[in-house]
Amino acid sequence: MPASRERIFNLPTVTKTVIVALTATQLVVAYGPLEFSNWLLTTFAFIPARVTLEGGAEYATMLTYFFLHGDWTHLIVNALALAAFGTPVERRFGSARYLLFLAASAFAGALLFLALHPYEIAPVVGASGAISGTMGAIVRFAFTPGARLADNRGSPRTPYDEESHFTSLSQLPLNRQAMFFLVAWLAVNVLLGVFPQAVGVSSAIAWEAHVGGFLFGLLFFNFFDRAGRHALSSQ
Q1: Mean pLDDT calculated for residue range 75-86
Q2: pTM assigned to the model
Q3: Record's family (predicted)?
């Protein structure tokens, strides 16, 4: 009996589709007619001052900025991060909840940026805020013994829910691996915001949007996770 072949790109549906959509959008922006590319960027990029002063339909840009990227490097980094961190979250949440989660994380990232820079005129683009949301969600289950992506050392000092395999917010400070990831992630993003030249980026990095998306994923994990929702309803 021939051995089954493992697919090279074993990505779940929404993660794969989103990466294709981001790539298609970047192709249009990079190689489409210049006038049309400029219209896409000026219409769908998130510009905080425009949202603050005009409101209305401009709030929609707090979602549409997700599909736009500054250049191919920006897109490739985000696509790889989405494949790595989005895949386990989609498999845990299910496709429909995961899609809603990505949108909510992107909006949360833009919302924090807007709160801190309400009159900023520089456009904000990229899927980083939503991807940061997946990283925040992963903190809640990837380091929990028995959960997907977790190791099985079963340390008695590491708290977890035996039925649902996620770490509650109250137990999170006791999970050393999760806390190390959380603190390291926050430190790296703040440093990137202060010293973007360290990674060869000449323009500013909207690290505030990353933090907003990450905190959303961390705090609202239970609302999108089936096991988490069951735990909430039984409280």
Answers
A1: 95
A2: 0.84
A3: Belongs to the peptidase S54 family.
Strand partners, 58: none
SS3 annotation, 105-150? HHHHHHHHHHHHCCCCCCCECCCHHHHHHHHHHHHHHCCCCCCCCC
**What tens digit of pLDDT does each residue of 166-208 get?**
888 888 898 898 999 999 998 888 887 777 666 666 667 888 9
Q: Which amino acid is at 153?
A: R
Give backbone dihedrals phi and psi of 11, rounded to 5 degrees, phi first. Answer: -95, 145
Torsion of CA 107, 111, 112, 116, to 10 degrees: 150
Domain range list for the chain:
13-225
CATH number for the domain formed by residue range(s) 13-225 = 1.20.1540.10
Mean pLDDT, residues 73-87: 94
Query: For 88, phi and psi rounded to 5 degrees?
Result: -65, -30
| CA–CA separation, 147 and 153 (whole Å) | 12
In angstroms, rounded to a whole number, what is the distance separating the alpha carbons of residues 25 and 1? Answer: 44
